[in-house]
Amino acid sequence: MAATPPLLICEHCDTVYRRRELCCGEVARCLRCDAVLERYHRLSASGMLALVLTALVVFVQANIWPIVTLGFNGTLISTTLWGAIVMMWREHSQVVSLLAAGTLFFFPLCKMLLLGWVLLYARRGQRAPGFRLAMVALYRVGPWTMSEVFVLGAMVAIVKAHVYFDVILNPGIFAYAALTLLITIFAGIDIRRLWDMTSERAS
Ligand SMILES: [Zn+2]
C-alpha cells in the first residue's frame, strides 16, 4: 500500500495543508474558503466494490422491469425506461430521448463499470490497467448521471397523471428509488482517495 501523502491541497483556493488521519465522523475543511478537504470513511475498497456491484444489480432490474402502468377506459399500458425512450424518439423528441438515454442509462452504466474495474484492483492496493484514464473519465462522467433527477421527475409526472389515468406503480420505479439511495451514499465517498490507496507497481 502507498503511504498517505503528507500534504493536502484545497481544490478551490489552492491552500496547502499538512495531512493527518481523520477520526470517525470528522471532516477536514479549508480555513480560507471553508470547502471540504476530506471526510472520514470507513468503507474500504472491498466495501466500495460491494456497493458498486449492488448498484449494478439494482440498475439492471430498474431497466428490465416496467416503471409504471397507465390505465384508461379499461386499457392498460405499461412501459420500461427504454420503452419510453424509444417512444420519445418515434414521437420526434430525439433530443430529449438522447439526453434521457445518456443521463439515465449510458453514463451511469459507464460510471459503475469504470468504478468496478478500478476497485477490483484497488482491493489489492494495485492500480488497474488504464487507471489514470478511468479516474479522469469518472471525474468527467460524474455530473452527467441524473437518476435522482429522473426519480423526482417521475414522481411529479405520476402524481399529475393520476388526474387522467389509473396509475399503477411497477417495480422498476422502486428499483430506481433504491438506485438513487445507493448513488447518494456513493456521492459522499471521495474516490480521489484511490490515488493514495493504490500504488503504480504491482506488489
Ligand atoms: Zn480553500
Automatic annotation (TrEMBL):
* Species annotation: Dyella koreensis
UniProt keyword terms in alphabetical order: Membrane, Transmembrane, Transmembrane helix
The entry's protein name is Paraquat-inducible protein A
Entry's transmembrane regions: 43-60, 67-89, 95-120, 141-161, 173-191
Q: Which domain of life is it from?
A: Bacteria
The protein's matches in Pfam families, at most eight in alphabetical order, are given as:
PqiA
